[in-house]
Amino acid sequence: MRELVLLDDWNWELLLVLGLLFSAIIMFVQNKPRMDAVGMLMLAALPLTGILSIDEALTGFSDPNIVLIALLFVLGEGLVRTGVARDIGDWIYQKAGNQETKLLLLLMVSVAGLGSVMSSTAIVAIFIPVVLRISSNTGISPSKLMMPLSFAALISGMMTLISTAPNLVVNSELVRQGLDGFSFFAITPFGIAILLMGLGYMVFARKFIPDRSAGKKSKKKRPTIDDWMHKYKLRLRQYRLEVQEDSSLLGLNFDALDFSERGLHLFAIERRDKRQTVFHRPSKQMALQEGDVLLLDVADQGVQLSKFTKQYGLKRLLLTDRKRYMTDLSQELGMTEAIIPVNSPLVGQTIHDARVRSDSGVTVLGLWRADGLIEDTFLDEEIRVGDTLLIAGFWDDIKRFQQDDRSYVVLLHLPAEFDDMLPARTKGLHAIVILALVVTAMVTGIIPNVLAVLIGALLMGLFRIIDMNSAYNAISWKSLVLIVGMMPFSLALQRTGGIELASDVLVDLVGDSAPRVGIGALFLITAILGLFISNTATAVLMAPVAISMAMELGVSPYPFAMAVTLAASSAFMTPVSSPVNTLVVAPGNYAFGDFVRMGVPFTILILLLSVFLIPVFLPF
Q1: d(CA 87, CA 426)
Q2: 97-101: long-range contacts (C-beta < 8 A, 24 or more apart)?
Q3: Within 324-385, where are the H helices?
Q4: Where are the alpha helices (DSSP H) in 339-476?
Q5: Model pTM?
Q6: What is the torsional sign of CA 224, 227, 231, 237?
Q7: Could you give the 3-state DSSP secondary structure of residue 254?
Q8: Whose CB among 74, 153, 204, 568 lies 3.0–4.6 Å from 535's, allowing a Cys bridge?
Q9: Edge-to-edge strands of the sheet including 238-243?
Q10: Is the pLDDT of residue 9 over 50?
Q11: Exposed/middle/buried for residue 182 (C-beta within 10 Å: 0-12, 13-18, 19+)
């Protein structure tokens, strides 16, 4: 009788925990309330059941893996702010051009490689504008590239231990149960194999991705620098002149060149400094050197540039479609449109006077009046109320000009490139070296993983790649709160016998079959559960089940833990399976069925490959 009462009590406690878990799943599916709020609700509800104490429910906040995940977001932000990810995107376009297959392969390999050391969600956010630019340049529909982007980002989570949160969650569960965790590259052989299969799959199956280039018209986009180059006809006014070894300007200060009388404007001086190119704002104290490149705007078509270059010993450099300094150097030089208000002191001045007398560091490149562009008489045209001026200069000068309270002009809007500025563009090499040091420390195990990443984040701050505000903003607090909120379920299910029950059910289903069948069943259940809740929450729930199942079968727990790890990242089947998929839905103009059609067959292929490969690298 005593045993029966205890059993009844145990059943009620388990039913209560399962009820809370089912409620969480329903809220996740409906996305009401938001996921992190659900995590907090569960964190409050579990101690009220009496199954866990409040200290046990809050242990997630002290878990080193939570700190590790947060710091990985900070390292990823360093790669964003330095432009390392964007440079890779530009390299892809230069190498692949308009060849769709080559473009797709380079894109997926680059995303998977970079995503192996940073958040997969962050890598998709970085590459979406890159893919849109590539689509614009090549004419390939964004829908043909956005899904390969999301698939590669999910595969990147299978590349290293730190590449996605579920990997760390499974590893943490192994350690919590007194086992050795996975090594840094334990998952890498599987990730490489799945990536190779994914490349072949996408090359074959991309014809089934719908071409939705003629979808609904999007909202009006902000103008770009390239748009203004066309509108104000600036293409033929750009010049790059290099100072030669016999130039009469060598050693002279900038004011030796009288641009004001020649209809010329010097935007910047391009100079090689060791291994990088630096762009300097012209100043009267700056002495010109051999090899300096002058970036000019020639507004007066009467200027005889050949005579000018010969007189000063300058060499004209070629500007091509891929080398236009106002668009190619949008990280340094910017533009903005501004309208002339009634009380502006510029009213009545000519454009020439406004350019010469300006002490703001910016210059006027174009004038648009109600009836169109003023072109031929541009420099001698008097400024009127209501005129629209195109203003250009270094971004810092434009921002100061924007904050000027003297009411010279009213800025209408900044171009789209303003949002893509990289605050630490010159620190790309520093970021790469820091990341390499962190990875080396984690691979060798000379210090704990969390300490290695913490030192890396501090080095990012020391070299001014990130600051405290950008570090805090980079962390996905929503993801961290979700993980912390769901972690107590693992302990609650274990204490009430839920883990043991799930393990028994799976063992009974597998029966006397080979352990490979158990791996396949575990992978399938984890992948299906991942359709309804986040892959991180799935890993939290399934990792202890995998380890318990292995113990009951009397085999190594590592193959089963790896099955959960791979399945948790196989969120290819619906657009809501992972934030990675959700991010590409709008720019790719996808429907729900597009992911089902492409994702289900690929997930089945990963299942089959995993069942074959896992015992090869992790014997039973």
Answers
A1: 12
A2: 97/138, 98/138, 98/139, 98/140, 100/138, 100/140, 100/144, 100/206, 101/203
A3: 325-328, 351-357
A4: 351-357, 395-402, 428-444, 449-462, 468-474
A5: 0.61
A6: positive
A7: helix
A8: 568
A9: 276-280, 264-273, 293-298, 238-243, 314-317
A10: no
A11: buried
